[in-house]
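[step 3/7] fold_predict: job queued, chain A
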Amino acid sequence: MTDQPTLSKSTFLKGDQCSKRLYLSAYNRDLKSPPTDQQQAIFAAGIEVGDLARDLFPGGINCRSEEQNELTVQLETTKKAIEDGATVLYEAAFVFDEVFVAVDILVKKGEVWNAYEVKSTTSIKKNHIRDVAVQYYVLNGAGISIERFMLVHMNNKYVKSGNINLKKLFKQVNILAKAKAQTTELPYEIKAQKKILKMKSVPNIEIGAQCKSPYPCPFIAHCWSEVPSPSVMDLTHAGKKAWVWWNKGIRHLKDIPKSEGLSKSQSMQIDVAISGKPFVNVKGIRLFLKTLKYPLMHLDFETVNPAIPRFKDTKPFQALVFQYSLHIQNTVGAEAEHHEFIAPIGKDPRKPLLDKLLADTQGEGDILVYNIHFERSVLSDLAKTFPKHKKEIDQRISRLKDLMEPFNERFYM
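[step 4/7] structure written:
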């Protein structure tokens, strides 16, 4: 633990994704886009899950420091805790080959240690193996003998009943063998990243699939600033083909050759982009509008997906509906009446929401939604949770009408 870190696990993984991202993260952080609300929610869930997982091994020493020289203090705290005979450590810090890592949970078993990496996901992903490989490389180099390296993730089959059962909420899988297999090339990759950080200018890296995999890069807005709008990236259902065109120098939709075997909707999208005028199938739209049955009820749900189940009979990441907005238009041209529900904080919102929704939507008439799959799934989940109301809920489901239909049929583009 004597080397001074040049890289950390997180910066290495950034460089693993893209050398340009590594460099910009070190020297041009002002070019980053701020995290979205969704990304911030994911970060918050990760912290919450990580803190809860520590209770699998209670009574440990937290080596993390908020002091100015955080890394140095964290390293010193870890070293002292080990020397003093601590058997459970949180955020234990080590440096080897100028790479800094902090292990979520480290537990001593006799003369060896078991390490635990906590992820707020419901499965093991390729980048998780990579994450653990870097940690194992540093731990092994720092003289810490690791017997098992466990990936701790959420069990999406777990159903809360009473207090949280941590042993059932979390799954633990030993991925040490898979992680070890990736460490052979790490010294060379680390060396290459150190060279990147010593460069005098930004590496010349073209945009590509790495911009969004395994995570969306916060520098996309900067690196994609010269991508035209619309571009081949905007073509519906283009997938990997968009990158094939891009790498051939095809940037604009209008430049995609007709010989590329485009679908009807893709060809229509290109025609609209070239003409600059929307395509409108007036007849199709009128026919769709004629199918609507009054009173029209415009419904929109809002859900939350807590990583850790909050209420009885709920699972990790289960979508819990807590709010709806409903506008009822009784006749053509009539002013819409607004109805709504928003749940109080801290209470299971589903039953009171369902009671009011059923009262607000009784009778006949189409219930208009955009993307019927979402609202249907919310109502179906409520029917499973409250089977006494299944008949009433099924009646509401039968009245759902999808406003996405005219767009799927290409009546407007």
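[step 5/7] annotate
The longest strand covers residues 99-109.
The radius of gyration is 27 Å.
exit 0
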